[in-house]
Amino acid sequence: MEKANRQYSYWREQDLPVKLREEASAIENDSDEIYDRFCRDMTFGTSGLRGKMGLGTNRINEIVIRRATMGVADYLLSKHRRPKAVIGYDTRLNSRKYADVTARVFAGRGIDAYVFDLPTPVPEVSFAIRYLGADCGIMITASHNPKEYNGYKVYDHFGNQIDDLKARKVEGYINSRPYFETEEGGNGNIYSCPEDVDKAYFKAVSDQRLFWTEDMDNVREALSGINVVYTPLNGVGGRYVPAVFENLGVKNVKYVKEQMGFDGEFSTCPSPNPENEKVFDLALSCAGDGTDIIVATDPDSDRMGVMAKRDGRFYRLTGDQAGLLMLDYVCWCHAHRIGGKNMRGQKMVYKSFVSSPYAEDIARAYRVHIKNVPTGFKNIALEMELLKEAGREEDFLFGFEESLGYLYGNYTRDKDGILAVQMITIIAACLKAQGKTLFDRLAEFYGTYGYAGSKAIALEFSSEKEREKINRIMEFLFDGNMTRLLGLPLTVDATHCCDDMFRALLPGGHQIIIRPSGTELKLKIYAFAKGASREQAADNVDRLLSEVKDALGDI
C-alpha cells in the first residue's frame, strides 16, 4: 500500500491532462482505488499491455503509453540506425489519441512513424509491417474487451507480436524510463500510411479464397444462394467485410445497421466479444427464415464468431467448432489438389494447447502434422517464421485458437477475422448446396471420430488484491491436490504443456486445462469431453466444469 500511495502522490504533483487530474482528485480518500491503480506497473501479458483506461500505473493512459513507447524506441534504436514503425488503432475511445502519442514519441526519438488514417484491423497492421519493410508495429487495441479497456500491442519486423524473450527486453527498457518524460527533439517523421496498403491487404485476403478448382462454377453458384447476416460490433470489420461478400458473389447479406458505424461506447453491445452469445441479439433480430448464418467480428477484427441453424434455431458455434470446420475444409481442398487424401505429413497445422484435441483426429485422417503451442497467436506466428527460415513457408496450412482466432495463408502473422468470415461463408455455402448446415457437418465429424464437446469459462476477480487468489489456486493445482473428476483419476500432463498452465487428462479422452489470463484478472478453465451422444458429451463437459469450480471455490 505504501508504494501505491507514493506513486499516487507523485502523479498528483505532475501536470496531468485534465481528465486524469479530475480522476486523481476523485479518489483522494479511496485507499482501495489508489491501491488498485498504483500497486504495480502494467506488464506485458499474452497480447502486450491491456487494461482499463484511466489514472494510474496499472491503467492505460497517455502517460503509460508514452513511457511504453519510449522503451520500445530504446529497444529499436539499439538494433537499427533509423528505424521505421507502423501504427494502427481500433475504434475504441482514445485509440486514435494513443496512436498519435505513440507517433510523436517515435518521431521525437528519430523513428519514422507510419500511422493509418482510419481504424484498422489487427492483421492489416501485421501485414503492413512486412509490406512497408518496417522494423516494428504498434496496434492500439483491447480486442474484444468492454469499452473501459484499451491496450498496446508490439510487433517485430516479421509482423509477429513480440515473443516472451523480446517482451522481457522491451520491458527492461520501459522500466528504466520515468513516467513523466517529454518527447525528445529527434528528426523522425510522421506519415500517413500509404493508401496502397489497404488495397494490398484486401487483395491478400481475397487471394485466400480456397476453392477446389474443378468445382469452381458450383461454388460460385452456391455462394450466390447463401443468406448471411453480418455485424462488425461497431468495429473496423465494417470497412472490409462488405467488400469480401461482394468479391465472393454473395448477394443476400443483411447488415446490422446499428453496429456498422464506429462507436467506442459500443452502445448496443457493451462487451463486444463474439464468444458472448448476447452480442448476437441485434443480428438475430435481423435474421429471417431464410438466413443461413450470422457472422460477427470483434472491434479490431482479429476474431470471428458465427451462428448457424440446428433444428430450425440459431446456435452459436464455439471457437473450436468453427476451427474444426475450417481445418477440415482446408485439408480437404489441399488433399484434392494433389489428387488424393494423403498429404504425407508435409503440411503443418498449429493450434493452442487449449483448443480442441479433436483437431488431431482430423489432421491424422489427412496425414497432416499438427503441433500444439502455448496460448497466444504469437506462438503460431513464431512457428510460421521457423517454417520460413527452413524454406518451408508454403507448408503452413492452418492455425487456430479456440478464442475465435483463425489464419490460412502467409500474408499476415496474426489471426484474421475478416479472412475467417470469408472462409466460413464459403464453407456454409458449399454445405447449403448439398442440403446441409454447419452443424450437419459437425455431426458427420462425430459420426466418424466420436461425439465430443468443449467449453471454456472464466473465474473473474474484481481487484488487484485478489490476484494472490489466482496464485493460490495455481499452487493448489500444481501441488497435486486435485486427484479425481467425474469419479475418474486424473493424470497431470507436465510434459507437453507450458509453465503457467495446468492440464489434466482423464480416462475416456476427457481433459481439463486451467490457466491465468495473460491480459485480465481471470482464471480460464477449459473442458473437453467425449460421450456416446452429443448430449452426453455436452453433459460431461458441464459436469467437469462444475466439479472444477466446486474444487476451487474455497481456496
Provide structural commentary.
It contains 18 helices and 22 strands. With 555 residues, it is α/β, with parallel strands linked by helices. It has four domains: 1-39, no CATH class; 43-201, Alpha-D-Glucose-1,6-Bisphosphate, subunit A, domain 3 (Alpha-D-Glucose-1,6-Bisphosphate, Chain A, domain 3), CATH 3.40.120.10; 208-449, Alpha-D-Glucose-1,6-Bisphosphate, Chain A, domain 3, CATH 3.40.120; 451-552, TATA-Binding Protein, CATH 3.30.310.50. A six-stranded mixed β-sheet has the order 1-5-4-2-3-6, with helices on both faces. The protein has a five-stranded mixed β-sheet with strand order 8-7-9-10-11. Helix 10 (241-248) links the parallel strand 7 (227-231) and strand 8.
The strand line-up of the biggest sheet is: 1-5-4-2-3-6
Which structural category fits the helices and strands? alpha/beta
Biggest pleated sheet: 6 strands, mixed
What's the count of strands? 22
In the CATH hierarchy, what is the superfamily of the largest domain?
A: Alpha-D-Glucose-1,6-Bisphosphate, subunit A, domain 3
**Distance from first to last alpha carbon:** 24 Å
Shape-level CATH architecture of the largest domain: 3-Layer(aba) Sandwich
- What is the CATH level 1 assignment of the largest domain? Alpha Beta
Share of residues in helices: 25-40%
In DSSP terms, counting alpha (H) and pi (I) runs of 4 or more, how many helices? 18
The fraction of residues in strands falls at 15-25%
CATH topology heading of the largest domain? Alpha-D-Glucose-1,6-Bisphosphate, Chain A, domain 3
Which regions contain 5 or more consecutive residues with pLDDT less than 50? none
Report the principal-axis shape: globular
**Number of domains in the coordinates?**
4
Average residue pLDDT: 92
Backbone CA Rg: 24 Å
